Amino acid sequence: MNSKTPSCLVGAFRSLRISHTPTTRPLAHPSTSIAIPKIQCAQNVRLFSATASMGGNWLEPNINRKKKMMKGRARVATGGSTKGTTVMWGDYGLRMIDHHRRISAANLKIAEDTIKKRLRGQKYRLYKRVCCNVGVFVSGNEIRMGKGKGSFDHWAARVAVNQIVLELRGMIHEQVARDAFRLAGNKLPGQWEFVKRGEPPIVGITKLDGITLEDLKRPRRKVPAESITPAPPPTDGQRTPLDLP
């Protein structure tokens, strides 16, 4: 160090010492030994995650919008299937009764909001039985024929005839649920009906009420000729037309 430096500064520099300070907080009882327990993780258990799933929801799936898809038709149960015609998870349901159609995600969202607005303050759970996984591609107005399929417009769902769309379960009176589904059916295209758990399924347009699916699929039985009784002849002497018994 330069000799011209004042002696007070030299003494101050010499008094400086580099000391290591511990970064951890000292224990209150250093003599007590603390045993850290080891947490055993369960096997084959999915841990909780706060990350939002990328699978999409029932109104907008995680599908590439640039990939064009055909319009298609709704499922027609020609083989005697009763899939989707009964209430499975809830106590009440909303079922379409006229014919199959394609319903947009906007209409289904409006129906869901209508039910939630009617049941505000109630304890319930709403189940969705359809998924808007069909992309609708349209062309603009005054576009010449050809020139491709068009751009993406909205998502939609194919709903078959007599299919359950929404189900409801909770501490709700039947009349309240019936009124909520009535308001939701007015927002959706087509004709809808209110169904309850335990009602018979439907095959096509035939309700299996008192008849089983096996009896419905069974071919027509032959009636022996001996069991058929002919119609009696007329007593007034007039001829009976051939198209009458």
Automatic annotation (TrEMBL):
Any one Gene Ontology molecular-function term assigned to this protein's record: rRNA binding
What biological-process GO terms show up in the record? mitochondrial translation
* UniProtKB keywords: Ribonucleoprotein, Ribosomal protein
Q: Which CDD domains match?
A: Ribosomal_L16_L10e
Q: Could you tell me which residues belong to the region Disordered?
A: 216-245
Please, which domain of life does this record's source organism belong to? Eukaryota
Q: Name one GO cellular component term.
A: mitochondrial large ribosomal subunit
Write down a Pfam family by its short name: Ribosomal_L16
Keyword check for Ribosomal protein: yes
Similarity comment text for this entry = Belongs to the universal ribosomal protein uL16 family.
The protein's name is Ribosomal protein L16
Instruction: Name the species this protein comes from.
Output: Daldinia eschscholtzii
- Top-level taxonomy: Eukaryota, Fungi, Dikarya, Ascomycota, Pezizomycotina
